[in-house]
Fold this protein.
Amino acid sequence: MLGAVIHNVHEIAAEVIRKTGKDKPADAALREVLKQIKDLAPFDATEVAKTVFLYYRWHVWLREERGVEAKMRFAIRLNQRFQADSTSVPYSELRANAVPAWTAEEMEVTDQWLLSLQREPKLWLRAKRGTGEALARTLFAADVSPLVPDALLYRGEEDLFKTPEFHAGEFEIQDIASQVVGMLCAPQPGEAWWDTCAGEGGKTLHLSDLMQNKGMLWASDRAEWRLTKLKRRAGRAKVFNYRSAFWDGGTKLPTKTKFDGVLVDAPCSGIGTWQRNPQARWTTTPNDVRELSEIQKKLLGNVVPNIKPGGKLIFSVCTLTRAETTEVVEAFNAKFAAEFEPMIFPEMKFDGRTVENASQVMVWPDDLGGNGMFIAGWRRRKV
Ligand SMILES: C[S@@+](CC[C@H](N)C(=O)[O-])C[C@H]1O[C@@H](n2cnc3c(N)ncnc32)[C@H](O)[C@@H]1O
């Protein structure tokens, strides 16, 4: 490759790590550094990202090493050994080093969860409704999940954002547990839905696809820049049945519409994404958990006036703490039992277990090979 600059992946990763700090998460530092290197091959950019994230995954094990480069080399070795043989790290060591001690106070810390946190995360795609098999054939290195319709596990090395299928809106990159949220919302064509914390629209696009682009879908957020990103994504995915609106989460709602379904995919501590986003293990605090739990309770209570009799309310968070999951459900039930009853979800088959007759489900990384996620549902009583 004449004229091409040879970049050292590890040097770039070390630069990202040096830029990462309290005010700059690793993913932001990664974007900043990669943006400055114009001729980095996509494969190398992926390797830089992997190296940065594995560094934070093994963070506590590295404390005896001096300097970022030495720590990084040690992390790479530890990681290689663990990926080849997960018993090379005893559970007691995982329990002491993989997560901060306070997690044991806030959630059930299982051996399986700790193991999952040290593994490389999987890349999941969501194909348009009913097209999973066909997309797997065109992308080659992708397998359809037997558990979640149209979810594909991507094993290839291609830059998916550059594929014609991505530009044609044939798939989105979306974690499999997030896809379960849309699946359990199960919106029908022609209905009216409100995705209250839509962000960049991962779940909005899924809801629209399930609605076959028919009916009405409101997408709101308090971060307008996120809704701008959603607009771009919606154009590519050819989503026409949505409108976006600002909502700060307060009692002043963006519309008087009564909806068939409202999704509150609430801000949370994100502990369910710690495999993908390991630096957050060392920046999240128990205080965040408390504050976010209160915000979640408030958001759920505030959307109540906009749900039709018989309409659904779905609450989801990509976290596993009691304060942000079961306690939020209990608080909602204590306040709204006269108006809402728990909604029984259809049976779900996970890897190694079946969830039946549940109105709330904790999806563990082991269940599907994706993020941890909690989902609860209610229906507004008709009388
Ligand atoms: C978990 S993220 C949403 C992810 C999105 N649903 C998706 O699937 O891509 C939570 C969103 O809630 C928004 N948010 C945070 N605090 C809020 C509040 N008090 N009121 C409304 N939205 C809020 C954030 O801006 C963020 O976009």
